[in-house]
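User: I'm writing a tutorial on reading structure tokens. Could you give me a worked example: one chain, its sequence, then its tokens, then a sentence or two explaining what the tokens reveal?
Assistant: Sure. Here is the example chain.
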Amino acid sequence: MPRSFIVSLLLLIVTGCSFLATQQWDKRFGPSSPINRASAASFAVSNTDVPDYLREVKPIIDNRCVVCHGCYDAPCQLKLESMTGLERGANKERVYDGARLLAANLTRLYEDADSTEQWRLKGFFPVLNEREQSEPANQQASVLMQMLELKQRHPLPSNGPLPDSQFDFALDRSQSCPSIEEFDTYAADFPLAGMPYGLPGLSQEEHQTLTNWITSGARGFDLSAHFSPELSAQIADWETFLNGNDNKNQLASRYIFEHLYLANLYFDDGAERQFFRLVRSATPPGQPVERISSRRPFDDPGVKRVYYRLIFYPETIVAKNHMPYALNKARLSKWREWFLGSDYAVPSLPSYDLATSANPFKTFQHIPPKIRYRFMLEESQYTIMGFIKGPVCRGQTALNVINDQFWVFFVDPDYPDIAEFADFLANNSDNLDLPAERDSSAGALAGWLTYSEKQQAYLKAQDQLIKTKLARYKGPDINMVWQGDGDNPNAALTVFRHFDNATVAQGLIGNDPKTAWVITYPLLERIHYLLVAGFDVYGNVGHQLLTRTYMDFLRMEGEQTFLSLLPKETAHQELAYWYRGAEDIVPTYFKGAGLSEQWQTQLTFSSDNPKAELYQKLKSHLDGVRNLNHDIDTNLHLSPTTQRHLLGLQNQRGKHLQWLPDSSLLIIEQEPPLRPAVISLLHNKAHQNITSLLLEGRNRLVDEDTLTVANGILTTYPNALFKLGNEALPGFNQRVARLQSAQDYQALVDAFGVRRNNPNFWALSDELHKLYRQQEPISYGLLDYNRLENR
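And here are its predicted structure tokens:
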């Protein structure tokens, strides 16, 4: 029998079964219609006490459901940060798909559909009852209710890891997304797969609260903004600034929007803490916002005049996409001075043609580069955070193009003062083309050689500019590194990669890293337009591969500037060390782009380890500016004994560390009056090079693995959770040092860990979030448990 006939027959059988199941549900409770849920009059009248949604129901959904169902990687696209997401329901299509040949249709909540009916047309199915509004229907026809009941009937085994035969926690695991018509089959096949998936069930009290709420009709609503007169006045001031009529103002506002459209904006000079988003609107201030949604922020808005508006952000804050950004009177005054008070002209507004709009050096050529750089530099943590959290929550293909730990510095905007820099960038804008110009369904064949040639041409032109225009420039020195104007901790950052996600934090955290970057304005701008504004998580495989390829050159550019501060011989030795085993094309590129033979570092070195000496010089250069909050040895909330043990743990190095996960969180109980400490344990995996997209495992060098131990939470996707007393730290350290097998690691977790199926898991989770909120009230958000291991 032909294979195509068999496939068609199976498809016909499945379709027929689904049709029969739908008929059975229609017969019991009537046809499904989202209008039923949207009408308040249709809600069932319950004899039970209806729980208060905001006070009783939402905290349970947040702390037990949103910790897995948030942002783009919410399983089955079931986003539960808001009631609108719960109403929208689930979808069997995956947002993350690195193999699709065509860009996917957009399914962004609040943007790509305006009603539940529209979401149904886009393939989303309900998880709440949308049939007859009665108590039996609300319980039985709700996927959410049935998932919760399934967990209550079949609780997880609580000892040891969960059986691999029944659970799949892999990064790209297959997802089961049953509709109510498919649920009976799902429950029979996966009895232990109730919700929360792979985690303990709700307490009896929590379960009863949600049962009563769902039975009574699951009434709920999104959070709404309640603005004080003071806050309303601040919003009005900012919208007035952002919507001036002259070309200068409109171009400046477009620049600001394209950099801040993903920020969670808040006003920090008042008592209220509410978050906002900056959006494009077809309507001016004073009128209801008519949001303009496009695939990317620089796409054609389709209207004659764009207005920039602040809208309230209604979702529960999740850490993996939370990028807070403060607005205040001082910042407004500074931006007015920079963008509107500076002496430059905008003769005409740029188009939204993709060849222009995807390249910021063309679009914004009339705004002086120093203004643009200052804008990005003063909140550089936010800028770098964009490519880690930004449009994709967990990072994307380009994350495997960075090392597991590196430090980031920035060239001072006044060093050197190149008056011709604006013309230089405009004249070289073609060499700074970005993959977004190829749209979201690009081919993947242009790749390395095309961008390599353009990057080398740009770097050589820059070298020539310095040579001809700056006779006084003798070579790189420590003064080229921005000191944060004496008080800005964004001058020094640390990036940690945790395989498929990453973290950026202020400060120089951990032991000296293998590599570091020194970033210039053109590099910082391209990082943003490559990995944030120009990256489309719904894009095809070609778009994602081009993005990853281009990021290779941006990383190498930042590394080259850092290496230029070292003696030439040392720089070449480091380069060879960083790119051991790389394809011939990589050293060929470096030779072509080369460290200019004319410019020699102006720093003097006295030791036999110039790189370590350079790191110390940079630390001293940034004394009083760099953030020390995550450093173990300077933290006043840790006892001297705790500090000593944690520093000893951080100094471990070698192949025994390979058994540790990428990121772990430790709660350490200390002697009163010291509060419990939350510590991040980050496993920095070593590679001979990071130039290969598909051969990461082959490039591993486990003997060179290191640890970073940091105060606070420096991961949004923890892989493991531990809780121990201060007196247990020596034993914990010793067990880590003796790791030789998976069994040894399992014994470590047995002794100190709290596995995902531990009956005390939710109590620890609540304690962890409480401490996180206390320590980082602005950057706090719910952690994501999709990456918790099962070992």
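What the tokens reveal: Confidence is low (pLDDT under 50) at residues 38-42. The chain has four domains: 3-215, 223-349, 393-627, 640-775.
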